[in-house]
Amino acid sequence: MADQNIESTLVERRLFPPPAEFSQQAHIKTQAEYQTLYRESIDSPETFWPRMANELHWHKKWDKLLDWSNPPFAKWFVGGQLNIAYNCLDRHLLTHRKNKAAIIFEGEPGDSRVITYAQLHREVCKFANVLQQSGVKLGDRVAIYLPMIPEAAIAMLACARIGAVHTVIFGGFSSEALADRINDSKVSLVITADGGFRRGKVVELKKNVDVALLKTTSVKNVIVVKRTGQPIEMTAGRDLWYHDLMTAPGLSAHHQAPPLDSEQMLFILYTSGTTGKPKGVVHTTGGYLLGAYLTSKYVFDLKDSDVYWCTADIGWVTGHSYLVYGPLANGATVVMYEGAPNQPKEDRFWEIIEKYGVTVFYTAPTAIRAFIKWGDQHPKAHDLSSLRLLGTVGEPINPEAWMWYHTLIGGTRCPIVDTWWQTETGAIMCTPLPGVTPTKPGSCTVPFFGVDPAVVDQKGHEVPPGSGGLFIIRKPWPSMMRTVYGDPERFVSTYWVQVKPYYFTGDGARKDQDGYFWVMGRVDDVVNVAGHRLGTMEVESALVAHPKVAEAAVVGRPDELKGQALCAFVTVCSGIRADDKLKEELKCWVAKEIGSIAKPDDIRFTELLPKTRSGKIMRRLLRDIAAGKETLGDTTTLEDYSILAKLRESDE
Ligand code: WTA
């Protein structure tokens, strides 16, 4: 396990109490209220969770709150039945929300659509019927490879409605990555689009699907949404147009949401880990929905009058929990934007906030750092006075970026919720409550209800306040992942053996004197590039699959904009010229194997990689070299001292 992030000397003393006007109207108004609820959630889960879960619609109430008889395999709300799509749609139709905007869509080229709850319900019911007519059954896996368009939410909700398991694959992933995921979960249907708009260009999604399907055998049908209108190939008998299916005579707009088991698998989302192969994180119905619903309500303080915008792509967990399930379960109005923040100009986000009167805005620190670089004139040119609450997620936020966000975007009046969580946790775990928790720039502050985090040493003992250690969670929580798809052993070995019997997050953190958590970043071989998780082993596997590469080691190094950047140390096969042309070739190769988000930022050729006598690559040394730091650590086990000097020489 790496140790680079555990120690930190950062001391941040600024404290920002929530504005009184905010607290007065917030769902949770006082520290005392939070403390009482939090204590109850930890000490008396059997009273806390049922009360919270009763805010959802259940076809049948559960018999048992939690079955933890076979840890770490949890079952929550055992015997209960509900339907997520019913909770996100049907139940709102019985209220004043029927004709309220559910999704306000803004396309990158400037087209827009407003879809009310009644309309969204109708589309989801129709598409649920389409799926069932196509032979999709309870438990079947459906891949969604779509741009950020309303049909993505419709497809997810239609799958959830019939109990099909969706696996959303980020549109930036390559056909290779798509094929791997389709094969891992034996997907029978793919939902895609002819293309999507991104940075003024068209992303050729259908073309990627066609290539991926040459390497897969499980897919029977491909449903294609027409988005860009560019010519594509349609394979007869396999490929079907979404608009044809949705306008077919006789297609009913009625669909009765069936009761589904609390533990019915809802989705698989692939995420990078410490081995070469991404793992399929499994979430189930009841606990996940409760987590997404409750955190959306309290962390974003959602009210009927809010216009809520989460900028995450649906291909990531944030898009699942905080663009689709959480806010819709609350009956909120959600803004969905298809494209890049600098298309056509660097003020696009601020223009959207002004245009729709966004009140709650949730984005990533990497985006904030880009905005800072682009200049204050862009937000200053727009009226951002509708905003009342800001959020961040995905990586630690540096205090300067926090202050800029607070001042320039929040006009110093908006609380900032720095939310720590993971694909695995399903929902936000550590966060301020906006009407209650005084914030400190760079800290995700305190645990949400039911979350019992700690910072411990390798033996599992809590470390003193202010000291760095491993970030763990001690109690099971409803929205926790249930397993790794098809590989329960990997679930155990990845999360539950390092600090037995607790859940190990993979992050390093410290807890300060006030009980606030400061997450320092990953302590495993996962790198967080622009808020996207990448396994260094995954990139290494891609590199060594190239015929000219003998060996590769990939590490993260600090990057001002992206948080971390990828640096690859590569040894080439004998007789191969290690030159700039090859560097470019290798970068493109990785983009083709995984996706452009995994493209190494630096490639450094070396004759040998530093290894211990037992043959392990000394990643700590490589990280220091990549960061341009002197190597202070213990190098006595280094096989060949001269390698270090050579690696430094190769520094460009
Ligand atoms: C990091 C994204 C510091 C962390 C929801 C975690 C954060 C990983 C924060 C999960 C935050 C996320 N402060 N670090 N507020 N939020 N992280 O699965 O390293 O894409 O383990 O989920 O992002 O990334 P994932």
Annotation keywords:
five-stranded parallel beta sheet; 31% helix; alpha/beta; 652 residues; binds 5'-O-[(S)-ethoxy(hydroxy)phosphoryl]adenosine; seven-stranded mixed beta sheet; 30 strands
Note the overall shape.
globular
Structural class given helices, strands, pairing? alpha/beta
> What is the strand arrangement across the widest sheet?
5-4-17-16-18-19-20
Q: What's the β-strand tally?
A: 30
Bound molecules: 5'-O-[(S)-ethoxy(hydroxy)phosphoryl]adenosine
How far is the N terminus from the C terminus?
Answer: 28 Å
Number of helices: 20
Low-confidence stretches: 1-9
The major β-sheet equals:
7 strands, mixed
Strand content: 15-25%
Radius of gyration based on Cα positions: 24 Å
Mean pLDDT: 94
Give helix % range.
Answer: 25-40%
What does this structure look like?
The protein has 652 residues and is an alpha/beta fold. The protein contains 20 helices and 30 strands. The strands form 9 sheets. It has a 7-stranded mixed β-sheet, sandwiched between helices. A 5-stranded parallel β-sheet has the order 7-6-8-11-12, with helices on both faces. The protein has a 4-stranded antiparallel β-sheet with strand order 21-22-24-25, with no helix packed on it. It is globular. The two termini are 28 Å apart. Residues 271, 316-318, 393-396, 418-423, 444, 505-507, 519, 521-522, 528, 533 line the site of 5'-O-[(S)-ethoxy(hydroxy)phosphoryl]adenosine.
